[in-house]
Amino acid sequence: MRALDYTALTVAIVGAVVWGLVGLFNFNLVSFLFGSMTWLSRIVYIVVGICGLYTLTFYGRIGDSTED
Question: Is 66 within the bounds of a domain?
């Protein structure tokens, strides 16, 4: 489960950086790499969105985790 958590968090952070580039420089890295709204860029957007939604579950687990 930790691997899934780290993967989802990493993808969500990458998505946040992409949105930061759009906001600051009007540069869409996903469109630059994969084309504007191609099937591959849509998959990237879907995966980032799913990971973002998955990271919402972290709020419910913040108090449940134990530190070793």
Answer: no
